[in-house]
C-alpha cells in the first residue's frame, strides 16, 4: 500500500503543478466545457422524451429542442424583422408579437445566418460563444475581489447554476450576461468611456438600461460622498463621463419603447405587447410600478387556495433577508458597485415584473452574487452545492423548458 501511494505521488504532484501553472483563462474554458457537457446531457435526455408540441415533433434533435418557446420569436425576428402594425385580439387588446423582444441578439444571429444555415444551429453557436465570454469576464471581475480559487469556483457556480441551460439555447440571456459582466468590470475599473457603448448594446439585448442607470446613479453618489471625505478622489473628467454613462443608460432603457411606438404608430406599443403575456393570468390592465408582485400574490393565492396575505408576508420577509444579506462579510467583499447592481436590478424586477414560471430565468442577471456563495472553501460544501445546482438544472428543465402537454410554464 505504501509503495502504491509513493508510485502515485509524482503523477499527483505533476498534475498539481501543471494546474497551478496553467493560465486562468484555460481553467475557465475547462470548467465551461465540462459544465456544457452536463447541461447538454440533461437537455438531450428531456428532448428524447419530448412529445409533439407547438414547435417540434416527438423526440426532436438538440438544435430543434433549443429553439422552442421564445427562441421561435427570435427566429421570426431574425428572418423577417418586426411588424409595422400590432396584432389585435378579438376584444380590441394588443396581442403577443415580436416587439416584446429586443433586437441585438437576433441581429447577431442574422449576421451568421447564411443561406441554407439552420437557425437553431446558428443561435446555439452564438449563445454558447457569448456564454463562454461571460464566464471569462466573470472570472476577471471576481478575481478583483476574491482569491483565484474562489473566483474560479464562482465561475463553476455560474456555469452549473439551475438556469444555466438557458445559456446554450436560442435565447438572449448569454449575450446579456456577457455584456453585463463587461459593463460591471468596466465600472469597477472606472473606465466610463468604454462603458457607454457596452451599456447601449446591453439595453438592446435584454431590458436593463433603467436598472443600470440606477446603478450608475448610486455609483456617482457614492464616489462623490467618498471624495468629499477625502477617501477616494473623483476627478471632474470622471464625474462627467460617469454622469454621461448614466444618462445614456437611462435613454437606452426607454429607447425601445420609443422605437416601437414610432414604427407601429401606437405610443405604448412595447408596454401593451409585454402586458399581453400576463393577460392569461390577470387579464389586460395597465402597468402600475411596484404592484405586479402584489397582483401576482392574489393570483397565486387563489390558484393555491391560500390567503393572499401569506404570500405578501413571505415576499416582505424575503426582501428583508436579501437586503440584510447585502451587508454580510462575504457580500461586502465584492465591493459596492456589484451590490449597487444587485439592488438596482432587484428594484427593477419588483417594479415591472409579474412573477410566474419565468422568474428564475429573469433572476439570472443577479449571478454576480455567486461570488459570495463561492467564498467558503470547504470541499464538502463546494461539492454539495455543485451537486444541488446540477439537480436544480434537471428540475428547471422539467418545470420550464420541457413541454408537458398544454404547458403554461414558459422558461
TrEMBL record:
Q: In which pathway does it act?
A: Glycolipid biosynthesis; glycosylphosphatidylinositol-anchor biosynthesis
Q: Does the keyword Glycosyltransferase apply?
A: yes
Which keywords, in A-to-Z order, does the entry hold? Answer: Endoplasmic reticulum, Glycosyltransferase, GPI-anchor biosynthesis, Membrane, Transferase, Transmembrane, Transmembrane helix
Name where it's found.
Answer: Endoplasmic reticulum membrane
Q: Does the keyword Metal-binding apply?
A: no
The UniProt entry, under InterPro entries, shows: PIG-V/Gpi18 (IPR007315)
Look up and give the membrane topology term: Multi-pass membrane protein
The transmembrane residues are 24-47, 119-139, 151-172, 192-219, 240-263, 309-328, 340-360, 380-403
Query: What broad class describes the main subcellular location of this protein?
Result: endoplasmic reticulum
User: What protein does this entry describe?
Assistant: Mannosyltransferase PIG-V
Q: Species name for this entry? A: Antiquaquibacter oligotrophicus
Amino acid at each position: 500500500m505504501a509503495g502504491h501511494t509513493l508510485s502515485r505521488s509524482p503523477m499527483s504532484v505533476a498534475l498539481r503543478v501543471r494546474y497551478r501553472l496553467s493560465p486562468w483563462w484555460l481553467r475557465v474554458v475547462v470548467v465551461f466545457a465540462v459544465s456544457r457537457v452536463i447541461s447538454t446531457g440533461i437537455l438531450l435526455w428531456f428532448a428524447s422524451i419530448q412529445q409533439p408540441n407547438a414547435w417540434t415533433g416527438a423526440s426532436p434533435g438538440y438544435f430543434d429542442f433549443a429553439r422552442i418557446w421564445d427562441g421561435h420569436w427570435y427566429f421570426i425576428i431574425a428572418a423577417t424583422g418586426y411588424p409595422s402594425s400590432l396584432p389585435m385580439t378579438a376584444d380590441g387588446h394588443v396581442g403577443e408579437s415580436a416587439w416584446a423582444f429586443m433586437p441585438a441578439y437576433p441581429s447577431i444571429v442574422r449576421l451568421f445566418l447564411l443561406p441554407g444555415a439552420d437557425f437553431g444551429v446558428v443561435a446555439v453557436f452564438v449563445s454558447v460563444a457569448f456564454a463562454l465570454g461571460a464566464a471569462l469576464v466573470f472570472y476577471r471581475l471576481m478575481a478583483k475581489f476574491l482569491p483565484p480559487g474562489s473566483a474560479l469556483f464562482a465561475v463553476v457556480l455560474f456555469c452549473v447554476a439551475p438556469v444555466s441551460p438557458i445559456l446554450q439555447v436560442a435565447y438572449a440571456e448569454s449575450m446579456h450576461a456577457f455584456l453585463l459582466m463587461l459593463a460591471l468590470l468596466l465600472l469597477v475599473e472606472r473606465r466610463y468611456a468604454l462603458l457607454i457603448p457596452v451599456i447601449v448594446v446591453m439595453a438592446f439585448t435584454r431590458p436593463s438600461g433603467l436598472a443600470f442607470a440606477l446603478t450608475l446613479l448610486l455609483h456617482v453618489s457614492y464616489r462623490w460622498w467618498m471624495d468629499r471625505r477625502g477617501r477616494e478622489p473623483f476627478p471632474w473628467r470622471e464625474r462627467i463621463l460617469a454622469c454621461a454613462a448614466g444618462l445614456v443608460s437611462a435613454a437606452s432603457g426607454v429607447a425601445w419603447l420609443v422605437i416601437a411606438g414610432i414604427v407601429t404608430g401606437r405610443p405604448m406599443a412595447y408596454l401593451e405587447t409585454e402586458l399581453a403575456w400576463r393577460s392569461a393570468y390577470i387579464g389586460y390592465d395597465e402597468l402600475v410600478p411596484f404592484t405586479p408582485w402584489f397582483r401576482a400574490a392574489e393570483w397565486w393565492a387563489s390558484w393555491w387556495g391560500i390567503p393572499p396575505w401569506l404570500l405578501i408576508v413571505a415576499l416582505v420577509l424575503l426582501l428583508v433577508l436579501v437586503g440584510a444579506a447585502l451587508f454580510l462579510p462575504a457580500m461586502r467583499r465584492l465591493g459596492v458597485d456589484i451590490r449597487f447592481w444587485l439592488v438596482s436590478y432587484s428594484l427593477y424586477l419588483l417594479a415591472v415584473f409579474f412573477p410566474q414560471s419565468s422568474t428564475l430565468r429573469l433572476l439570472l442577471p443577479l449571478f454576480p452574487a455567486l461570488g459570495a456563495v463561492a467564498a467558503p472553501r470547504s470541499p464538502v460544501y463546494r461539492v454539495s452545492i455543485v451537486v444541488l445546482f446540477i439537480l436544480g438544472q434537471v428540475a428547471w428543465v422539467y418545470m420550464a423548458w420541457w413541454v408537458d402537454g398544454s404547458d403554461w410554464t414558459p422558461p
